[in-house]
Amino acid sequence: MEERRRSVRRRALKGARIVFNHGASSLSCLVRNLSEDGARLELESSLGVPETFVLYFSEGETPRECVVAWRREKAIGVRFRGSA
What we know:
0% helix
């Protein structure tokens, strides 16, 4: 399988929140791997997660605007906006 990522991903285990609907809705998730361009997020269910949202990290890192790249039952892959 050919690697399509532009940057190296690192394993992670960080708490985060998926925030959408102009800040009115949010879901908890775990960041399982992370790169400069995106992340793999685990959550209870990917149903109801919109195609775009803001990811807030529990450790106070800068929030990132995200676009869903792929979706599974309990995980999603995201690209960070501005990381063409």
